[in-house]
Structure formats: structure tokens, C-alpha cells
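W.,

You were right to be curious about this one. When I first looked at the sequence I had no strong expectations either way, so I just let the prediction run and decided to look at it fresh. Below is the sequence, 86 residues in total, followed by the output.
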Amino acid sequence: MKAQDPLFTLISSLDKQEKIYFKGHFLTKTNTDHLLLFNGIEKQKSYDEQKLRAELRGKISLSRLAQMKNYLFHQVLESLTLFYSD
């Protein structure tokens, strides 16, 4: 069985309100690369790195993709922490 990408699993588990909160509070005009990455992963029904790279080619620096995914993963976790805190 193919291992799932942790970021894909996390993004897939978000409900509509969590995604809206994340996009509104964490993804700003200054980090459009992360928004493109989030949206690209969100659209996939099952994770396919090659399709994601093809979709993002020319839009973001693919040499930084692993770093961007790591950053985005931690931002989503931080967003969820704030979303569910009083």
C-alpha cells in the first residue's frame, strides 16, 4: 500500500470552516506560493506528487517544494490550534 503524504492527509481532513479560517488568517497576498500549493493539494482526490508538480510548474519554485510543504503543514496545525481555542 502506498503511503499517503502527511500534508495531503491533513488538508483532506479539514472541514469547510477550517479551510476558510486557514485561508483567511494564514494565507495572505504575501505568500501566494503557499496558497497555490494548498489549493493544488486540496483539489486532488488522492495524492499524486507528479501531477501536483506539473500543475505548479512555472507558478512556484519546485526546488523548494519540500520546504514549502513542511511550512504549510505547520501553518495548518497552528491554524487548527487557534480555530479551536477560546
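Here's what jumped out at me. The CA atoms of residues 22 and 79 lie 6 Å apart. And, maybe more interesting for your project: Helices lie at 6-13, 16-25, 32-43, 49-56, 65-83.

Coffee later to discuss?

I.
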